[in-house]
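Summary for the steering committee. One of the milestones for this cycle was to obtain a three-dimensional model of the protein with NAP bound, which we needed before selecting residues for the alanine scan. The sequence and ligand used are listed below.
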Amino acid sequence: MILVFGGNGQLGQELSRAAAAHSIAMHALSHAKADIADGAAVAAALARWEPDLVVNAAAYTKVDLAETNVEDARRGNETGPAMLAAACAGAGVPLVHVSTDYVFDGEKAEPYVETDPIRPLSAYGRSKAAGEDAVRCVLKRHVILRTAWVYSEFGQNFLKTILRLASSRDELRIVADQCGSPTSAQEIAAAILHIAPQLAREGAWGTYHFTASGDTTWHGFAERAVAAAAPFTGRRPVVRPISTAEYPTPAKRPANSRLDCRLFMRTFDYSPRPWAECVDATTRALVAAPQPAASQTMTNNTGTNHVA
Ligand SMILES: NC(=O)c1ccc[n+]([C@@H]2O[C@H](COP(=O)([O-])OP(=O)(O)OC[C@H]3O[C@@H](n4cnc5c(N)ncnc54)[C@H](OP(=O)(O)O)[C@@H]3O)[C@@H](O)[C@H]2O)c1
């Protein structure tokens, strides 16, 4: 049985959906049901559900707000994972903990490998890096999965922002000098469910990178989404490239967010799907069944902060 914390987030909801589709026993706890920074709540959840594996999909993901709400970011991204890892250690349960490309500074020319030194540029990145450390210190039986540029049909994210803006604007101005791999939460959920049965194997513990295959820029991501939506919506706004300097944000973001996923692929015998194929699929799902209007102010790490 898999117990998920952060069950109402993008990844949390995709995990529940994937588990239901494959008849995998899973229980997902929302933030309201279990705060990962509350040690007693976490221990009670583990005692009640007696899971074979815990997945931490919970995080404070408001990248720009984290610059001022440093304590909130710490609570969700450092204290929470530390509490969760300690409870897992106490209960003898392994943990899959999800982390981010934002632990890197983006100055490397090539995709980042797991052993590259980290140097977060933002308070969010620093809190996630501290969370990774906390998990490593407390619990041997862990997998830390760093991913990037997450979007899904659920919650608020860059893809949904683009589709909303494309329905009303004739021109979108999108940051074109940050590169990475847009990764569907559905793909991350599938990868986690793929590795779950393998985690009893010796030697599989550690830190891995997992994103969709291939890479692009936020501008390329937006162009792809607009093109995929156009046959359904009849709208094809121009997508203009801009630089990061033309759209400053409170949190600094890495110019290179590309993660080398070969260690994950080799270890777990799993190949991620191409990013563009996944963007097309999620776009089709969204335009075929429109979601309720998103808030105008999006502050998570894939919200409006690359869209001028
Ligand atoms: N989104 C991205 O672009 C991105 C990129 C790289 C890595 N990641 C990582 O991927 C993972 C999943 O991200 P996501 O996009 O699915 O995030 P998300 O949609 O923002 O979901 C995070 C969930 O965690 C919950 N949460 C926050 N603090 C909590 C706490 N103390 N205890 C329990 N639950 C708490 C949130 O609930 P409330 O909303 O009620 O606070 C929310 O439901 C995270 O580790 C994130 O850092 C995300």
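Key point for the committee: The first strand starts at residue 2 and ends at 5.
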